[in-house]
Amino acid sequence: MNSASVLPSLLFCAGLALAGCAVNPQVQEREQRAAQVNMELGLHYMRNNQLEQAKGNLERALGQNPGSAQVHAAYALLQERLREPRLADRHFRRALELDPGNALIKNNYGTFLCRHDRLEEADKAFRSAAEDPLYRTPEVAWTNAGICILKKPDEQQAERYFRRALETNPRHVPALYEMMRLSFDGGRYLQTRAYLQRLTEQVPHTPETLWICYLAETELGNRDASGVCALRLKNDFPDSEQTTRLLETESRGRR
Questions:
Q1: pLDDT tens digit string along 39-63?
Q2: pTM score, whole prediction
Q3: CATH assignment of 72-169, among 1.25.40.10, 2.40.50.140, 3.90.320.10, 2.40.50.180
Q4: Domain ranges of the chain
């Protein structure tokens, strides 16, 4: 049965609500399944930046199942993309009213709050998500908490969060990257080397990691290692900004 054929019975029940008319459970189940399909389609369109199509599907999903925390959370993500932060906040809050223990929604809400510089609220949301024993990827929330608190900035607390992420998952790439960067910025070059090695065991080198490798090994006095990183940077990423900086550095050194 499609939504058009369901509509008359729903309107009839709405008119007799005081008399105790109840929605047919089979109808409700169909509407919930339809809402799930529309939500998934809406998220698909969002991933492909087709926001108008996403809006249509997610609004249908809301109409079909207004009691779904997942649908409200998805609609909140869309409203943020549409630059409607008040609507996004309203639907995130509604989602958490419907499902207060949903760590994934808390993590997504924390990301929204952080982007809008509501840092204390974001930190609370991230910590609540990360500390949930049922959350399958707490390292994501810990890393997000660290990245967010760097906006204060509070590097010491950020580092504590990144370490918590790596205690949970020692191969978590975003946390390894942030620890590499913090170590380098703090002049801790041996730690930089260690985190860089762990990072590149998981993902290939980038212009940035090769540039940091070159600079850290130069500071450590390891000319062979710095030379290898410099050569790879020039050969693998000849058009990168980091290669330009490397060539300028080498040119000054020859003067």
A1: 999 999 999 999 999 999 999 999 8
A2: 0.80
A3: 1.25.40.10
A4: 72-169
